[in-house]
Amino acid sequence: MRRLRWVVPFAALLLVAAACGDDDGGGGGGETGGGGGGEMLENVGTVNVLNAMDPEAEAPAIQEIVEQGLGEVDYTIEIEGSADFEEQFPIRAEGGTLDIALLPQPGTVASNAEAGNLVSLEDMGFDIAALEELFGEYFVSLGEYNGEHYGIPTNINLKSMVWYPKDDFDAAGYTVPETWDELMALSDQIVADGGTPWCVGFESGTATGWPATDWMEDIMLRTAGPDVYDQWVSHEIPFNDPAVVTAAETFGEVMFTDGYVLGGAADTPSIAFGDAPLPMFDDPPGCWLHRQASFINAFFPEGTEAGVDYDWFPLPPIDQEGTLFAGELAVIGTAGNRQEVKDFLDEFIAEEIQCGMGGVTASSRISPNVNVGPECYANDILADASVVLTDALAGGTGRFDASDLMPGEVGAGSFWTGMVEYMQQGPDSLQGVLDDIEASWSAG
CA-CA distance, 4 to 413, in Å (whole number)? Predict the structure, then answer.
């Protein structure tokens, strides 16, 4: 389990290895462990990048940006968005057919590195000291196992965001809440006015349930605080600890209160997370509030305008402050132990492509590259999100997504499915759900 070291400057945490392109790769014949090390394989002319992007919208947009940014190269790039990423990644990693994966769960790096499924950055010829200087030591450490490094941060997103239909919201006379009590009072007011406060959807193919774990993590930060959150992530407290129960009960107060959730809590696991906010844009709005990360506006209806049709506010504090964020690590499978893969990654993390991804609403990716300024982004919302991240990390209240740091069988397994069960079976199922998650962790 990765240990957490959070009090770091934002600029240090979010730096990308843009300058790594200056490294001519060497790459090859590292003797320092790391599955798939040794001499590089022959180039095959195609670099596949497996990822969890939406295959219909985001992945094609990134494909176009990458092709434009790469210019003339002697290989072809395949940006393969997969709704079944969580199934496909271990199959390809274990089968030796993986080039690159953009991995949203750093907690799975160690097990794959131990199994010899990944090639270390050292073996690929990356300068780790340069990466630490450019990314920040903490972010690079998320991909570390047994003294070697296996992941390069390529994306970061702010999760503690509540979206709302600004024009209708303002016309109704609602005001942005600054505390949890004010948020619940706003929810009550919307119900009293005949509306439905919350748009919620937890369906995501084989990853169904992850948006519910984000709710839990955001609330855990705000009820238990960062230190206890860290203990939860590292299993220093059990998953059925009273602090976790309190967070889950607070989550349930939103999900199970009559009239709060469009369609009701039991239906949320069947509503695609990308479709969930769409009723906000009905006339009148079918729902008014949607808690989701900075990438969700890529799913908003075409032609909607940030700051006019929609806006956002930070999920308010409860007993404590907290900000949840996540990101991706580019990891290299044993089939990717090739110079063309190294060359692609050098370009992918550099300023031109990173800036391009921030400038397209279909991707709405916040770059961790220090050289990607606010002018790169499609709208002020993405730029403003980075400010919230800055403040949270500088204040020591920012935390990486817990489920993405937990062992895969928990974070991308029993935690996801447990939250689905909680939604479908209701408040009385909570203790059993948390007991089952704890049992799955202890059994691992």
Answer: 21
Residues in the chain: 444
State the fold for domain 10-158+326-398.
D-Maltodextrin-Binding Protein; domain 2 (3.40.190)
Lookup: tokens for 66:
């990458």
Phi/psi at 177 (5° precision): -75, 145
Q: How much is the CA Rg of the chain, to the nearest whole Å?
A: 21
**Token pair for 246:** 């309190």
Q: Is the pLDDT of residue 106 over 70?
A: yes
Q: Is the peptide bond before 9 cis (omega within 30 degrees of 0)?
A: no
Question: Tens digit of pLDDT for each residue in 72-105?
Answer: 999 999 999 998 998 999 999 999 999 999 998 8
- Looking at 128-196, list the stretches that DSSP marks H as alpha helix, in order from N- to C-terminal side: 128-135, 137-141, 166-171, 180-192
CA 214 to chain centre: 9
Helix axes 430-443, 242-255, angle to 10 degrees: 130
What pLDDT band is residue 142 in, cutting at 50, 70 and 90? confident
Beta strands 144-145 and 118-119: pairing type?
Answer: unpaired
Reduced to 3 states (helix: H, G, I; strand: E, B; else coil), residue 158 is strand
CA atoms of 278 and 437, how far apart (whole Å)? 32
Q: Same topology for domains 10-158+326-398 and 161-321+407-443, yes or no?
A: yes
pLDDT score of 223 more than 80: yes
Q: Where are the domains of the chain?
A: 10-158+326-398, 161-321+407-443
C-alpha 242/C-alpha 252 separation (Å) is: 15
Q: What is the largest CA-CA distance in the chain?
A: 68
State the sign of the Cα–Cα–Cα–Cα dihedral 61, 100, 8, 401.
positive
CATH of domain 161-321+407-443: 3.40.190.10
To the nearest 10°, report the CA torsion of 14, 20, 26, 31.
-10
Nearest of 293, 274, 290, 291 to residue 389 by alpha carbon: 293
CA proximity to 5, closest of 399, 431, 401: 399
